[in-house]
Write a structure and sequence with these properties.
This protein is an alpha+beta fold and about 475 residues long. It is built from 15 helices and 15 strands. Keywords: Signal.
Length: about 475
Amino acid sequence: MRVLFSILSIVLLISSCKNSAHNESDDFAYIGGEIINPTENTIILESKNKTIDTIKLDGRNRFFYKIDNFYPGIYTFRHGSEYQMIMLEPNDSLLFRLNTFDFDESLVYTGRGAKQNNFLLNEFLENKKTEQAVRRFRSLNPQAFTSKLDSIKQSQIAQFKKFKKKNDVSDAFENLILQHINYSYYASKETYPFRSNRNQIEEIFKTLPKDFYAYRNNIDYNNAKLKDFIAYKWFLKSNVSNLALNEHMDHCNKDDFKKGRSLCFNLDRLKQIDSLISDKGLKEELLYHYTVKFLSLSDDTDETNTILKNYLAKTENVKGKKMIINFAEAVSKLNAGNSLPNLDIVDYKNNSKDLSDLVNGTTVITFWSNTYYDHFKSSHHKLNRLKSKYPEVTFVSINIDSYNVNKAKRALQSNGFVSGNEYFFKSPKLATEALAIHPMTKTFIINKNKKIVNGNTNIFYGKFEEQLVGLLNK
């Protein structure tokens, strides 16, 4: 397969040279690739939140596609629930090869445009590590925190200068990398005040240097070219949350201070999005994201109706409105005292049963996806500890992916998670909607009468075991 893939790279290189020799127009680019262990038979190519085309894989799990009416910039290719961002420029002939069992880490580019995209991919992977480090740095004072971020930023810039010295890079690519570095830096600063309690947050805001957020004066909240850019979206989410938090503290009840679960805070956040962002795609994405997040955490009908009404008044997206209403209706059916919906689950020996048949006593139901691999591992390690501590409780884990059951089975086996009570849904899309599975950490506690005790908890929540013990002691 590698030999054939290399031959295709040579063919594309020759084709690219011919095109240059004939001085053809630059309004096109090629993209192709090979997918090992595909989860479906298509690749979806997108740009600016719009689908350009759905491309079929051939019998060897490859594809080759010419983008006509091409414009340079950021594109996204999707396969199953996985996706990756690429940079395409005129006359590029970009190929990639990946294995779905290890999507990002196995991905490699060849052909014209490959060096830039391999560098961009490495930046994406390194950024994950940076985010983890930033969380640890938030315990530092503002000056020390800024010093750490400055050091990371300078290291990233130095790395790019080294790459640039060895390779010809376009102005567009250089601008993209610098935007990535800057917006990652800005997003990290925006997350700094988010601590556990109000007294800490108030103190942080008081001690911040006047120029801590000086970069805000030059922010473009409606940069169409960065719509698909992860660092840019991370900044926007962090920024509107920070601004809303500051406003929230001015008028919320000091004795009842909350962040994520607070109606007041979330209304402030939707207001910030509505006032700062005019680009319809970006605005809708953020409004929808935070409305769903609040609905998934709320167990108060009045608050649910208030946030729903507020969202519907701010969005013009008909599809988004329908999806939010359906999500809210699903959440309302999962309140304490209700029964689980009738859904078929299947074990890894291909035996099927109804979801409620798993409940013969106190039962905890969690979910996972290959898309959120870190959560998959951390949640299963947590479940193993809980199983040892509470042997009288049945702990169930369900994979929600709509593709490649063997991939889920392989993930469980390769990590040693073979203790039983592992299932997948027969109809994943139907089940995900019916159980309103968002976020992935969502957890159900069910009593021996097969009734929902808590349909909105989380095994990582500090009071989760208190909730569980409270049910066991009844």
